[in-house]
Amino acid sequence: MLCFPWKICICFLTLLIGEISSNYIEGAIALRPISFNLENSMIQEIVVRQAKAWENADAEAIVADFAEHGIFVVSESTFSGREAIKAAVTEYFEQFQSTKVKIIQIIVEGDRGAVEWTWRDTNKTTKEEAYAEDAIILELRNGKIVYWREYIDKKSA
Question: Which of 83, 93, 96, 110 has its CA 20 to 30 A from that of 9?
Answer without folding.
Answer: 110
